[in-house]
Amino acid sequence: MEVYMKNTTNGNTRRAFLQGTAAVLAVPLILTARQGAAATPPVVLPPSPPTTPWQEPLPNAIIRLDPVSALRND
């Protein structure tokens, strides 16, 4: 652990390296233009078409169909 904290021959430490790396990674975040929600107008959707009501009432009970003879195992 003590090896990492010692100064090297060129005077840099591990901490200085990490601080420099963090600064380099933060530069694009600082320099890029911020695009907020106010910059883009809201999308305007056309009105939905009118709906037509169902023409026939649906039955309340389920009507079972007879099985097809081709599907029987007899």
Task: Furnish the topology, listing elements before pairings.
Layout: H1 2-5, H2 14-31
Short key terms for the protein model shown above:
2 helices, single chain, 74 residues, mainly alpha, elongated
Q: In words, what does this structure look like?
A:
This protein is mostly helical. 30% of the residues lie in helices and 0% in strands. It is built from 2 helices and no strands. The model has no long low-confidence stretch (mean pLDDT 75).
Mean pLDDT: 75
What is the terminal separation in angstroms? 82 Å
| General form | elongated
Percent range for β-strand residues: under 5%
Global structural class: mainly alpha
In short:
With 74 residues, the chain is mainly alpha-helical. It has 2 helices and no strands.
